[in-house]
Amino acid sequence: MLSKEIEQYSELLNQTARYACDYIQTASQRPPFPGKSSIQALDTFDGELPAAGTDAAAVMRSLHEIGSPGTTGITGGRYFGFVNGGLLPVAHAAQWLTDVWNQNTALYVMSPTAAKLENLCERWIVQLLGLEQGTAMGLVTGSSNALICALSAARNELLRRQGYDLPQMGLRNAPPIRVVMGAGAHSAVFAALSVLGIGRREIEVVPVDHYGRIDPQQVPELDAHTLLILQAGHVCGGSFDPINELCDRARTAGAWVHIDGAFGLWAAASRKQRHLTAGLEKADSWSVDAHKTLNAGYDCGIVLCRARNALTSALQANGTYIQYSPQRDGMSYTTEMSRRARGVILWAVLKQLGAEGVEKLVDQLCDHAEYFADCLKKAGFTLVNPVFFNQFMVKCQTPQQTRRTLDAVQHSGICWCGGSEWEGEPVIRISVCSHTTTKEDIDRSAVAFQKALLEAQ
Ligand SMILES: *Cc1c(COP(=O)(O)O)cnc(C)c1O
Fold first, then answer.
1. Are 381 and 394 in contact (CB under 8 A)?
2. Is residue 260 in contact with ligand 1, taking CB distance under 6 Å?
3. What is the C-alpha to C-alpha distance for residues 143 and 140, in angstroms, rounded to an integer?
4. Helices 439-455 & 342-378, crossing angle to 10 degrees?
5. What is the pLDDT of residues 371-415, one digit of tens each?
6. How far apart are CA 58 and CA 64, in angstroms?
7. Which atom of ligand 1 is nearest to the CA of 291?
C-alpha cells in the first residue's frame, strides 16, 4: 500500500472507532428495539447496485448514521430477547485486532498465532467444563453448526462400530441407527439431523415433564446403535434434562450421548449452577456457544468430542494443496475450511475473565434472572416454571392478556423480550444474557412490564 493509502486506511479506522464509541456511549439511552422512524430510515439504503463506487468514509458514515439506529440493543442492559448474548469489551477489542490480521485459520501454516491460541482454548474449555483431558474442540459459527459436526461424528462412529464405513460407503446402504431425544429439543437439533439424512419420523421422541425435561421413565431401551441427544438448557424455560441418570444408562448400553448445551453448558463453570449439568463429562460430544452466556460476540460456537478421531474423520477434507502440519489445523474439527480466527477472541475472553470471571458472569446472569422473576411476580405476573439458569417464562391471567402485554412490552421502548408457547398457551420468555444488565435495568424493565400489564387489561 502507498503511504497515502495507509494514511486513509488509518483514518477510516479511527473514524470508525469514533462511531463505535458513540454507539457504546449512547447504548443505555437507545431503545432496545428501534423505533418506527429508525426503521423507516433504513429505506434510504434502497437502490440499485451502483455502477460507480463511493468513498469508503461516506459508506461508513451512512452505516453509522442510518444503520446504527436500526439495530436492536443487544449490547444494552434491557434486551432480554431469544438467548442473545451481550458483548464483553475484551471480545470486541480482540475482534478488531483479529480483523486487521485477516487470518484464515483453516491450517496452521496460514496462521501460527491463531492455531496456537485455538489449541489453548481447547485445553481451557475442556478444563472449565470438567471434561476428560484430550477431548477435541472445534470452533464454528454457532451451535447449529456445532450440532452438525458432533452429530455426524456420532452417526459415523455408531455405524463404524457396526462395521460400516460411512465416508466410503455412503448413507444409502447404511444399517439403521436410532436417535432418541426429548420433545423439548431445540429446532436446531432437528435441522442438524435432517442435514445428516435423519428424518423426523425416524426420531424416537421422548415425552417431557411440565418443565420440558425428558421424563427418564419414558426413555426407551437404549442400545449400541443409539444416539441419545440431551439438552442442557431449554431455550424457553431453561430446564435441563436429567443428564447424570441418562448418561449412566447410555454408557451401560454403549449408546452415544450428545449434549446440546448452547447456553446452559456454562452451568458447569459455576459452583452454584453445576448441579444442573452433573454427569455431563460422561457424554461423548457437546455443543455450546461462546456468543450466548459467555458474551464473546457473534459468531462463536464450540463443538466438543471425546473421541478426537471420530470428529476429525467425519469432517476430514483432502486435497493435494492442503498442507497439514503436526500443529493444530483448525479445519479438521469443523465443516469449514476458511474461517475467521474465533480462537483468538475466545482466548482473549478466557484469559481476561479467568475461571473465576466466567463463574462470576454465569452467576450474575442467573441471579439477575431470579431477581427479575421476583419483580414480575410482585407485579402480578404468573411464573410458568421455576427459574432455571438465566431463563424464565411468565404469563398473565388469560392468553389474550399475555399476548397484549407482550406486545406492549415490545413497544415500551424500555425493554424487549420475545414470546413463545408453552403447553399450548402463549407465554412471555425472558433471557438474561448480557453482562451489562444491572439491577436498575431490571427495576426499570419491571415497571415497564407492570405498565404493559395495566394497558392490556
Ligand atoms: C441457540 C440454541 C441453539 C442454536 O444455536 P445457534 O448458536 O443460534 O446456532 C441450539 N440449541 C439451543 C438449546 C439453543 O439455545
1. yes
2. yes
3. 8
4. 50
5. 999 999 999 999 999 999 999 999 999 999 999 999 999 999 999
6. 10
7. 7
Q: Ligand 1 centroid vs 401 CA: distance in angstroms?
A: 29
CA triple 403-292-271, angle to 5 deg: 110
Residue whose CB lies within 8 A of the most ligand 1 atoms, among 82, 140, 143, for a mutation test: 143
Residue 415 and residue 451 in contact, taking contact as beta carbons nearer than 8 Å: no
Contact 268, 283 (CB under 8 A): no
Ligand 1 proximity of 289 Cβ (cutoff 6 Å): yes
Question: Does residue 241's CB lie within 6 angstroms of at least one atom of ligand 1?
Answer: no
pTM of this structure: 0.98
The C-alpha atoms of residue 333 and residue 140 are separated, in whole angstroms, by: 9
In tens, the pLDDT along 228-260 reads 999 999 999 999 999 999 999 999 999 999 999
- H helices then E strands: how many in the chain? 13, 11
CA-closest residue to ligand 1 atom 7: 142
E strands, 223-275, where?
226-231, 256-260
Q: CA-to-CA distance for 94 and 72, rounded, in angstroms?
A: 22
- Are 317 and 156 a contacting pair, CB within 8 Å? no
Determine the residue type at 15. Q
Q: Output b/e per residue, 134-168; b: 16+ Cβ within 10 A.
A: ebbbbbbbbbbbbbbbbbbbbbbbbbbeeebebee
Residue identified by cell 444409502 is 172
Output the CA 144–ligand 1 centroid distance in Å.
6
**Contact 263 CB / ligand 1 (< 6 Å):** yes
Q: Which of 260, 300, 420 to mutate to test the pocket of ligand 1 (most atoms within 8 A of CB)?
A: 260
The per-residue pLDDT for range 317-348, each reduced to its tens digit, is: 777 888 899 899 999 999 999 999 999 999 99
Q: Which of ligand 1's atoms lies nearest the C-alpha of 147?
A: 10
330 CB under 6 A from ligand 1? Answer: no
CA 188 – ligand 1 centroid, Å: 6
